Amino acid sequence: MDAIVHFKPTDLDITVEAGLGWEALNDYLEDYRLMFPVDPGPGATVGGCVTNNSSGTNATRYGAAFANVVSLTVVLADGTVVRTKKRPRKTSAGYNLNGLFTGSEGTLGIITEVTVKLHVKPKVERVAVVPFKTIKDAANSVNEFLISGISLNAIELLDDKMMKCVNDSGETTRKWTQAPTLFLKIGGSNDEVVKSTINQTKEISAQHGSLDFQFASNEDETVELWSARKVALWSTINQGKLKNDDIQLWTTDTAVPISQLPRYLVEVKKTIDDAGLENTLVAHIGDGNAHSFILYHPEEHAKAERIVHNIVKKAIELEGTCTGEHGIGYGKIDLLEEELGLIPIDVMRKLKLALDPHRILNPDKVFRMDPNKKLE
Amino acid sequence: MDAIVHFKPTDLDITVEAGLGWEALNDYLEDYRLMFPVDPGPGATVGGCVTNNSSGTNATRYGAAFANVVSLTVVLADGTVVRTKKRPRKTSAGYNLNGLFTGSEGTLGIITEVTVKLHVKPKVERVAVVPFKTIKDAANSVNEFLISGISLNAIELLDDKMMKCVNDSGETTRKWTQAPTLFLKIGGSNDEVVKSTINQTKEISAQHGSLDFQFASNEDETVELWSARKVALWSTINQGKLKNDDIQLWTTDTAVPISQLPRYLVEVKKTIDDAGLENTLVAHIGDGNAHSFILYHPEEHAKAERIVHNIVKKAIELEGTCTGEHGIGYGKIDLLEEELGLIPIDVMRKLKLALDPHRILNPDKVFRMDPNKKLE
C-alpha cells in the first residue's frame, strides 16, 4: 500500500497508494525539485494526511491537505470503490467529494489511493531567525508581513521557553537568544528575489522591535537555522522526562483569526503559567494556529484538562477552532459541539448515515452517532 | 442581500451576504489593497461564485472559490440554517461542509452568507504580452514557467484568431500581433522582485521562440496591455453578430492535466476548423482550462453539439474534465456521467437525498434524481 501509481512531473501531480509516508514521498520527489507540501509529524502516511486534513509549517504558503487533493480512491462502507475525480487541476464537475472525504477521519470511507498536487521547490530558499522582546511584537510583525503581501514560505513562532528548551537539549549546533523568535522561510525563483524579500522582512521586523535578524547565506546555514524549529516538540518532551519519567505532555491545537493572535497567545501563556504548569509554545503563526506543549504529572491530569478547556473556549470566543490540524477523533467531540453548535453536526450525521447506514466505519469518531448518548 | 456583514482587514477575510457582486466586493476592497480573487464573468454574485465553484484568470495563483471559502451560512431544504464554521483560516474540526456546499449548484442548500479569504494585492503588478509562432510553443513555455517555480499571478492564452477579433473590434487602443499570445500578470512586493521575475519570464519565452515580449512599465500600460484579454469574449460575439444577427455562440470549458495542453489545444482547434465553424480560443492555460468560442448558425446546432462533444471526450480521455469552472447545470449531466462514471454520481445522489429528501432544491440539476430516467 505504499507504491507510486502514476507520476508525470510536468503535470505537477502524483498518484500514490495511501500508505506511502509523506516523508518518503518527498524523498522521492527531491530529484525532480518538487514537493508535497503537507508536513505533519514524522511517520504520517499521505492517506492519513488527507483523511485528517493535516498541514504543518508549509500550509501558510501552500495550504492544508484539503487544498492539495486532486482525486481520491475511496472504499465505502458497502464495499463500493469510488474514484472521485480524474486529474484536472481545476474542475466544477459535480459535488466536490474530495472536499468531503478530506478531513472526515475515516468515518465516510477508507482512502486507498490519492492524487495530490505537487509544488515546485523554490530555486532559492533561505531561513531567517528573528527574536523579539515580546510575543506581541513578534505577532504584530507577522500581521504586517501578511498585510504587506510579502510571500513567505513558512512563518513559525517559538516562545522564549521553547528557545530555552532547545538550548538545554543541546540538539542544535548553536545557542539561541532565549526570546520569542520567528522562524521564516523566504523563497523565490532566484537570488535577487529572495534577497529583496529578506531586506523587506528585516525592515518590518526592525519596526516592531526585533532584537536581531540572522539569516542563512547558504544551504548549510539554512538547515542549521531551521534545526531549532525541527527539534522543538522533542526537546520539550525530553526536558520533561529529565525531571520526572512519569511526566505527561498535552499538546493543544487551537487556531484563531490572525488579528486576534497577539492577545490570544499572551492570554494562553498566562493561563498555563498561572496554573503552575510548565509549558512551551510553537505556533504556525501565519495561519493563526498555536500549539502549547503542557507538561504535567499524572495526578495533575484534571487540572491540565481544565486549562486546555479554557484555552479552547477562548479560541472559540474569538471565532477560532479547537483544532487547526490535528482533528477531532474521540477526544474533541464535546469541543466540536462547543465550537460549531449542534446544527452543523446534525448535517454531518446525516451525511455519515447516508454513506454508512450500518455505522461500521469509525463509529462515534468526530461526533456521536446517537446525539443523546454521552461517551463513557 | 448584498450587505457587508463583517470586515476586519487584518484578518484577511470578509463576511458578506450572498447577493453581493464579486465586482462590487472588489471595488469596496480597493481602498484596503485587498482582493477577493475569484473573477468569473461580470455580474456574478459572491454566493453564485461559491455555489458554482467559479474561478477565472486569478485561479492559477489564488485558487478557485473552493480554496477561498472560510465559512458559509446555508439554508437547508427543511429550513434549518447552518453556519458551517467559525472564522479560522485553517481547521480540521469535523467534516468540511464548505467543501461540500461549494460547487453544489444550489442542490444541497441555499447559501445566504459567505466568509471568504482575501488576498493582499501585489504592491507592484505588471502585465506582459508575449506572442508565439504556434500554440504549442506558447503552451510549452507555460509548462516551463510552472516547472521553474516562477510565481505568476495570471497566465492566459489567446489564439491568433482571437487576437484578430480583438484587433477587428477596435475596442483596444493598440493593434496586436495576430499570433497565439500569452497574457501574463507578474506581481510582487516591490519593483526589484517584479523586474527580476519579468527577466526570467522573458528568457524562458525566448527559448520557446517568442516573437516579441512587451511589458508594461507603469500602471496605465498595465491596464492597456490587459485590455485585449478583457474584451476577448465580447469581441468574438460582436464579430459574429456583424455577419449575421442570428449567430449563436457556444463556449466550451474543458480542462486537462497541464502536460497534455500543447497537444490538446492543437487538436481542439483542428476539430472545430475541420468542421468549418468559426472559432476563437481563450485559455486559463496555467490551470489547463480552455474555452473555445464557437460561432454557428441556428441550423448548425447539431453539428456544433457533435463537435463540442468530441472536444469534451478528448479532454476526458486525457484525464481531464468537461467543466473547469462553469459547472454542470442541466446541460452537462450526460457529460458528467462520461467523465466520472456512475459510481461517484450515486454517492452525490445519496448525499443529496440525505439533505433534501423531498427533492425541492434544484432537482435534476448536476445529475438526475432518478438514475433510470433521461431528461426531456
From TrEMBL, chains A, B:
GO terms for biological process: lactate catabolic process. It comes from the Eukaryota. Its cofactor is FAD. It catalyses: (R)-lactate + 2 Fe(III)-[cytochrome c] = 2 Fe(II)-[cytochrome c] + pyruvate + 2 H(+). One of its GO terms (molecular function) is D-lactate dehydrogenase (NAD+) activity. One of its GO terms (cellular component) is mitochondrion. It is found in: Mitochondrion. Its EC number is 1.1.2.4. Keywords: FAD, Flavoprotein, Mitochondrion, Oxidoreductase, Transit peptide. The keyword Oxidoreductase applies. Residues 1-121 form the FAD-binding PCMH-type domain. Its main location: mitochondrion. It is an enzyme of class 1 (oxidoreductase). Coiled coil: none annotated. The keyword Mitochondrion applies. Belongs to the FAD-binding oxidoreductase/transferase type 4 family. This is D-lactate dehydrogenase (cytochrome). It comes from Cerrena zonata. The lineage of its organism: Eukaryota, Fungi, Dikarya, Basidiomycota, Agaricomycotina.
